Amino acid sequence: MKINAIIMASGLSKRMTKDKLHLKINKKKIYQYILLTIRQCNFNEVILVANDEEIIKESIVSGFKTVKNNYSYLGQSFSIKLALENSSQCDGFMFFVADQPFIKVSTILHLCDAFNKNPDKIIIPLINGSNKNPVIFPSYFKKDLMVIEGDQGGRFVIRNNAEKVIKVTLQNEDEFFDIDTLDDYKKAIEMKVQS
Description:
With 195 residues, the chain is of the alpha/beta class. The chain has seven helices and ten strands.
């Protein structure tokens, strides 16, 4: 199966007093972790959507297809549409968030394997009963994803297609920790992260 990775890196950090993706953990900026991790995976294509020039430059150096989002205020849905419009043909789209620095290559591959075995299903990691990112959507959901609005992301599509969802139960909650607030950031600094 050909899976395209999509990295969402153009959020406005509304719950932070500063741009969270440039905060450092173990001498690396938060956004750099997901770039390094995805570079170790064999995706068909990697597409990064961002509005920050530094992140854009680093994505290009990483060899990723890079799309500038000048309309971040329109919400996550606009980033999704930009990515899908610039995506090459594939069997599925795996959506990553740039503020989730701890996810491991082995976990990504495990989720990809679940999709390879169920290519017509939406694959969602499940931790302690909660849905997490990254989620994989079969490519036939592209039209559905292109009509979402605001900050819904793919949740709307998931809710409307419950029979098409497979949840993969995983144990390491730390891998799916995302950084939304300063308290989250302080906690992340204390957590063990591969450097």
